[in-house]
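Batch job 17 of 40 flagged for manual review because the log was empty.
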Amino acid sequence: MNRDNSIRRSSFWDKLKRGEAEVRNPVDARQLFTQLLKRGSPEQLALTCDEALLPVLSTALGITANSLGPPLELLAALGAEQLSHGAYASRVLRIFHTFWEAPGFMQSIEKALVSNTLRDPAVVAWMLIKLAPEVEAVRQCKDPWTAKVVELLHCSTAVGMSSLAPQLATLFSIVALPSGATLAPSQAAQADAFPESLQAAKSAMRPPGVRDHDNDPADYRSISILPTPAELNCQEPPYLPPVGGSDFIADREAAQLDRLVRLMREDLLGSLREELAEELAAGASSFRRLYRNPQLLEICFEPQPYVLLSVPVPSRLAARVSKMKAREASDFFHHGPGRRVLAKEALVLLMEHASSSSSSSSSETPSGGIHAQGTEKKRLQLQTLAFGVVVMRKGKDWDMVDNLESGKLQVGVSFPGETSMAAITQRLVGLRYDTFAPTLCPFLFSASASYFTYEPVLLSLQRMSGIPLRETLAHMEPPGPKELPHGGRALADFSEEIQAAVQSDSTQSAVLQMVLTSKVVLIQGPPGTGKTYIGVQMVKAILEAHSRWGEISGQSAVPKIMCLSFTNHATDSFLESLMDVGVPESKIIRLGSSSKISARLKSRCLWELPEARFSKSETYCYAVLKNEQEELTKRAGRLLRKLKAFSGLGVSPAWWAEISDFLADEEERRALKNQWNSEWLQMLRKQLAEVMQKMSIKARSLDDLQLSRSSHVLSTATIIGCTTVGAARMRGILQEVKPDIVLVEEAGEILEAQVLSAIGDNCKQLILIGDHQQLRPKAECYKLRREAGNGFDMDVSLFERLVKHGGGEGSVPLPSVTLQVQHRMRPEVPHLIRHTMYPQLVDHASTLHHPRVQGIARPVLFINHNHPEAADADAAVLGGKSKVNMHEVQMVCRTAKYLLQQSGCSPASITILTPYLGQLAEIRKALVELRVGAELNDMDVKELQSLNLMDGPAGGEGWATVRAATVDNFQGEESDIVLISTVRSNPQGDIGFLSSAERVNVLLSRARNGMYLFGNMDCLTNCRSARGRDLWGRLAKLLRAKGQLLDFLPAVCERHKSVTALKELADFDRVVKHGGCTLPCGEDLPCGHPCPLLCHPKAAVVHAQVKCALLVPDVCDYGHQVQRKCCEVKVKCTKVVQWKCVAGHTMSGRCHQGRSAPCKTCEHLAADENAASAVEEQRQERVQAEEAALAESQSQLQAEERNQGDLLEIKEASSHHLDGTSPTVAIAAATNHDGGEGSDEVLEENAGSQAQLQAEECNQVDAIKREGAEDNKQYPLPATATHLSSQPQEAPTSDNGTPSLQRGSDSSPTEEQPAGTPQLAFHQPSPATPQPAAQQSSPGAPLSVPVSPLLSSPSQAPLAVAPDVVKVDVQLGEAELLHAGHVQSKGGTACR
């Protein structure tokens, strides 16, 4: 729903507008102000406050006179610049008058000023300044409170008052300034330029030291390099000195250093503010650098204190990665563009939601400072907790993650500043460490700037006692006479080799002479004039001067020369040029990371050279520092354990349970816990913060000590090469080495702060080589650039400042030399820059002999078109704002491929340039589609990766590879042929970078032989920028005068001398597909036949690849006449022929198929035979199976017959038992009838019969026991039994002498045999007694069984049991049941 519509539907609002309601109380007044402030824009607000609403507003002001927050917020909104003129000005004036007349309003303002509680005095001052010229009552202070308010405002130092106070003094002339009050220098300076709006007044800077945060000291040396949370949350802009230096420092050198420090810090902090504001404005769904809920994994102390965080990847980036395979995602974060996500050395902010107290309805922005302006209900307001630096980065193992959208990265973040260290340790208090990974804070923001790019330079500037070579660099005085290590000589004194190197160019000779006489050498070199060349010759001359006259002049030590450049590539190129002219490699040492150094110089990298040993003092110092660091680590560990043990829960729940009886209620417990935290835990936190800060200092000291070991190696070098940032980082050891001479190449594109921080205090000569008319140094914060027009001019280099000095009245220009002879370009190429930038530039005679570009009619052309540009969607994923023009992408890539088809044009001679990274990425992709590789430099690769624009391969094996680059990263480079895509083409006339004369200068001066631009000249010449219109208007005029502004590319056929217009993309395929024209080639191929292609260059190369398709006669191997393509070597005879196989069957086929094909008839016969064999094998298997089954059936039948016989014998034995025969003996005889085999099965089948017989025997035994129980003990033993007494007896033996088995032969009584019970031992009969054959085959052991008390007649004789009978019962399980003796059970009655 529209916000305006919702306001109109408000019943209270409608009634107020109709006069049906009125404001009666503070609640109604607040509702009125709330509804007014919800208007969509300042214009709508002014229109809403019409004549009908002004009385209502006056009443509301009177009611809320004591609550000035909402009224002042409304006044601030009415101070917008767009309301200061035009139709809105009169409306705003009436509203201001209503405020002034409101009863009690000005009185409340006076009270707030006196008590210093008015938050925004500038709002009231702006209202009075607007009213005074128009309202006499205001101007004459008819109101008794206005005069007091004006007087108090004069004395105010609040934001904006430095600009408004002079106007108040002028308008209210009757009010005198307080006695002794004077305007501050900044107020006096700005009194002549009155601001046009309240915002402009507030943007005026106050002096340092008055801002409401903890990092605004007046002394620049006291400023913390790392920003503080309060500094970022403060809405007042920092104090930034103008070009002339600080107005509050009298010393010129200190003022200059103060300016450099403050501007460079703002370049870091200002760009950070801009990025954060853009991130919040994009909304939560589009976050790119804001990470939610970082989790604390661990707190580490080595090599320096840091916290290990687990950070989820933003949803927008995770959505992109989720489309990749696991391996692609892993490469993306480890080696691809994802390396820039939370990269090492990145500056990060820990942030939380702004507190409710900071979101009051005052006129100021909440203390959170930065918010996302979405809907009113969804405004994200954040405040900074701490600043940190990424010191360690662990990539997630994406191969092990199923859902890439939930992937996380692990980063180690250190907190160098004391304020941030205290804040982070405060955050550690209260975390719930009983969880796996507690959330440290709601948000983490990662800035694009690398902290360590700024820190070394800023620290170096703060520690400088003064500016080196101060007479010239600070006080702008011409260099005075100073003894130089190589001074006092003339160029004629040097060797003929040195003189010959510069004799063809008088300006180069002047440069060498100046090196011998001046301590500050300024050399301006327009494009192509040989700046690197003359730099190499200067170093060579200095070394020769020392070798020839060093000892004579008393300079025994070889002068040390430090060569500085902004990039690694430029540094390596300069050092390699020195090696090419004969400077020994052993005299050169390269500083910096070996991974970024060229292969040729890698062996001379400082870190690759053997380290020197520590001296005794250094060894002792290292041991002391290491020991102190270890002690601090132990102490920090103890403190951290205490914090973890007691944070979050206060103390253990058991402790609370013990003291709960002494506490009145939960509130008392909570109060006690809070008091305990504030006293004891805060003490631990402060101690931990102090220890961690000391550990950081110790770690830095150990690093410095390690670097000092390298200074011994570095002292052996004569030439030291490094980048300006590297020199600032290693300023400590460079101060020990003390370079005598500092040579800075491309000094025009290096910040002044970077150059001064790299120059040592002992520098005797400074040589600056550059061109201030080309690209300036890069300032990240736009408001600090010169083109912004704010007067800060941070991107004006030291070189430009020195060269341009002397333009003003009374100033003396500093000596400098401008090289005027260009050796790079054909005369047609520098024509444009000669008439716009360098009127004195002349062409060397050698440039007249540069070859022309084959395939294009003219060496310089601008191809005009009107195809529109577009925004780069891919770059927007990571916050890029690059532009693309797909028509130009295809045109430059097709032109590059067309040029590669020309004779004498190598891939290395072609370069494609563009101002925009997005266009460069599209050019790279289009070249790959044309099977052409693209070579990019390191700087472009790094920036493309930061925007996630480096996807896909850069080329294929065997492809021709051309160079492609952005203009900014190609300064100092050159190429034979340059194709330029200007990109910009829009009806608004926005041309961005192309309005910069310095950037266009670089763009137009890189080509040696040919330069071809593609763009929309109408857009360029009619752009919104006045500078751009002037520049491109002059260029268009020069191009038209030379006939070089066309709407097509004139392609020239080198063979037929015809010219073809290539206007559209289709023309490249239709007209110049092979690089020539539409006529036939006309030349013969190596085979002698005419080439079938259209006209093309490089005949020898192309013809070697063409396959001639002309049909020629030939004979096959069998003598047939055939035709084949000329390119085919093997003849393919298609004639049908017949032949016979080995079996005599007739076969047919094509001749080229050969005679080895198998015979189909033979194959069919063989298949039939194999099938018959298989059938016969199956039949044999069935027969064998049937025979086996028959044999099994017969065996079973025989077994059944034997079983039936056994059953019959058992039945007969049973019948004998009825006749008095022992059934056991009968059964034993029956079971041993077959020699024992199968007895178990028979007995098992007849178990029922045996059980019946046993039962009958038991009944008989029971009857005997009842009849003669008393006579049992006197029962006579049978003659065959042996009485077992208690005396030991000799064990019976068998016939072969071995002991016989005896059952129950133990001498001791048992439960089964009571003491005194006689036992019977049954022995085998004597060998003399004849035995049946069946019994002799299984002799059994003697068996002893207890004799039950038998009641039988004396005439009844005991039963003698045969051994074979015993054997049968043992086989059944136990020899327990016999015919004449039964084993007695425990109960004495059971029988078995």
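Reviewer: the log was empty due to a logging misconfiguration, but the result itself is present. Residues 1160-1218 form the longest helix (59 residues). Unflagging and moving on to job 18.
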